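Practice record 12: protein with zinc ion.
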Amino acid sequence: MTNTNCLENIKCPSCGNEESFRIAAKTMATVTDDGVEDHTEMEWDDDSYADCTKCCWHGALKDFTVRSDPGAGGEALAANHVSYTPGPWACDLDYIVAADPNGRHPDIYIAEIAESDEEGRVASHEQQLANRQLITAAPAQALMLDLSRYGLISLADGDAEFNGTVYAFDHMQPDWEALIDAIGWDTARTAIAKATAE
Ligand SMILES: [Zn+2]
């Protein structure tokens, strides 16, 4: 059963129940000393509190919203390529930057590396340098994982083959970004999107 009316696209993300929910609704009631005389229609929105009548999972109603099923591959694609700012990512001093997906700015700040904290709760400078490299490499790694998952790339001794072209690739010290740069970010993304749509 899929909801199409009052509960369209609503489903418990914890137990899968889609039959009934408790939703904190707003209404305007006429009240006398004896109790409620009448009230207007009940209203709620995406931010209204809701809980699942089966497992008691609770949150804002929007947390219960399911998107139209993109299929298993589509979910992986959504998780990896739509929900975060598309790569490549780079460092600008303590900021992690990426191209503005909306094209309004040359680039946008997406994260900041903390170098100091009043209580000293910060990793050492050396670790933060390494951490920022790992963070900026993450989108390339995610693309690589998906290319592998869908069998689009084959890694052999010292090289990687994608779409009939062989790229130099050091497996001991993998430079994922250089590899994705060589393949082309859009080319890689398009190949994955095609594979997940099949
Ligand atoms: Zn539930």
